[in-house]
Amino acid sequence: MQQKIDRHVIAAVIATGLLSFCGVIVETAMNITFPTLMNDFKVDTGTVQWMTSIYLLLVAIIVPLSAYFKATIKTKTLFLTAISLFIGGIIIDALAGNFVWLLIGRAIQGIGTGISLPLMFNIILEQVPQSKIGMMMGLGNLITGIAPALGPTFGGVVVDQLGWRWVFYLLLPLLLVSLVLGVWGIRQGSSLQAHRFDGASFALIIVFFTALMIGINQMSATAFWSMPVAGSLTIGLIALVILVVRSLRIADPILRLGLLKNKRFSGHLYGFFMMQILSLGLAFLLPNYIQLVNGNSAMLAGLIVLPAGFAGAICAPLAGSWLDHVGPRTPILTGISFSILSLIAFSWFGQSLSNGLILFIYIGYMAGMGAGMGCVMTSALGQLGHGEQTQGNAIMTTLQQFAGALGTNLVSMIVAASQIDTASQMARTTAIGTQHALIVLMILSISIGIVYFISIPKGK
């Protein structure tokens, strides 16, 4: 008999998805506003970057707590806390009279997003019938996947026509829709349990992500072997090692890293992490290329990459439904194959990419990535026992934030290395550096394909 999804569950998934959508779209839209903010608040580039950095840092610190939150706090309480924090942060930013208040608002939004990001997938895993999980994971990825595509265009249009404060104001109606759907639709799917909060591990998570963020942010401005870069990264690495050892030794860790001993789950995790780096790297490289090499505006760059974002978002639920019928192997390997072929094409034409060629190839890449991303999450969590899936979701979402900090910086450093040649024109050195970065991403994509071929089981 065909299993049906309860309408309350659909409303809960849409509500939590919309909240995550708002978090992602603010992050991507605000990048476009940086020049305006620098002028309005009289801050430099290094300072304005903290608009993104403080947000990502708080998200990364809070996400690992998601398994603990789910076990000890009601789902609706978590949702109401997250959306209240996010709306509060949005209002603070919209009314901010100085840059400090702008950062405070972004930090509050980061805490709200950190709580909300894992909520949607936890609800799907717990309350959706097994035969429909792939489709609903795809729907969840569709909702959040449109945001990175819309963000730059949305930010550019709003800043040009209304001013940067309207980036925040215009999200309030969506957040109110999310609030209404969440209050009506979210139901408690499991009983709560008492868990001891592991404060030492949480402190190590804070040290790791803070040191990582400082180290990565300083790479473009300071020598690698300086204290701000190498010193910060070393401190972060030490904190990570202690965190891993501790999680393997205690009975109830914040992140159950012992799950990484499951080779199939670890293989999926490697590919998921690298796929995030590929997508974030391209999201930086292509608009940069359209502006600096092809000489177009930021708004046109946003419009050129927009169709690819929609292609990826649409393919996510279609591939999820495909997974429900045939299992994960075929849709995932098909998706990553499209992405590999697209990166080969990008690398081949790397120094002579017209706007039309970028639009065409990027649609192929994002269609493949959209098909693969949601299916990978579904397949990865399917390698774990039912009681382990919340922890697996926490690990994957945490890793996603780590990739977010790493992806853009990796490709920007490769491009910057070519731009050092001041004897050549900026457009030419940028094109050369972009091609080098695309080749690195292509090699990484091939490694993902190999790992998936080994890790993903055949059949349903």
TrEMBL record:
<feature type="transmembrane region" description="Helical">
    <location>
        <begin position="166"/>
        <end position="185"/>
    </location>
</feature>
<feature type="transmembrane region" description="Helical">
    <location>
        <begin position="402"/>
        <end position="420"/>
    </location>
</feature>
<keyword id="KW-1133">Transmembrane helix</keyword>
<feature type="transmembrane region" description="Helical">
    <location>
        <begin position="265"/>
        <end position="286"/>
    </location>
</feature>
<feature type="domain" description="Major facilitator superfamily (MFS) profile">
    <location>
        <begin position="8"/>
        <end position="460"/>
    </location>
</feature>
<feature type="transmembrane region" description="Helical">
    <location>
        <begin position="357"/>
        <end position="381"/>
    </location>
</feature>
<keyword id="KW-0472">Membrane</keyword>
<dbReference type="Pfam" id="PF07690">
    <property type="entry name" value="MFS_1"/>
</dbReference>
<feature type="transmembrane region" description="Helical">
    <location>
        <begin position="332"/>
        <end position="351"/>
    </location>
</feature>
<feature type="transmembrane region" description="Helical">
    <location>
        <begin position="78"/>
        <end position="101"/>
    </location>
</feature>
<dbReference type="InterPro" id="IPR036259">
    <property type="entry name" value="MFS_trans_sf"/>
</dbReference>
<feature type="transmembrane region" description="Helical">
    <location>
        <begin position="298"/>
        <end position="320"/>
    </location>
</feature>
<keyword id="KW-0813">Transport</keyword>
<keyword id="KW-0812">Transmembrane</keyword>
<dbReference type="GO" id="GO:0005886">
    <property type="term" value="C:plasma membrane"/>
</dbReference>
<feature type="transmembrane region" description="Helical">
    <location>
        <begin position="107"/>
        <end position="125"/>
    </location>
</feature>
<dbReference type="InterPro" id="IPR011701">
    <property type="entry name" value="MFS"/>
</dbReference>
<dbReference type="InterPro" id="IPR020846">
    <property type="entry name" value="MFS_dom"/>
</dbReference>
<feature type="transmembrane region" description="Helical">
    <location>
        <begin position="137"/>
        <end position="154"/>
    </location>
</feature>
<feature type="transmembrane region" description="Helical">
    <location>
        <begin position="197"/>
        <end position="216"/>
    </location>
</feature>
<feature type="transmembrane region" description="Helical">
    <location>
        <begin position="222"/>
        <end position="245"/>
    </location>
</feature>
<protein>
    <submittedName>
        <fullName>MFS family major facilitator transporter</fullName>
    </submittedName>
</protein>
<feature type="transmembrane region" description="Helical">
    <location>
        <begin position="9"/>
        <end position="30"/>
    </location>
</feature>
<feature type="transmembrane region" description="Helical">
    <location>
        <begin position="50"/>
        <end position="69"/>
    </location>
</feature>
<dbReference type="GO" id="GO:0022857">
    <property type="term" value="F:transmembrane transporter activity"/>
</dbReference>
<feature type="transmembrane region" description="Helical">
    <location>
        <begin position="432"/>
        <end position="454"/>
    </location>
</feature>
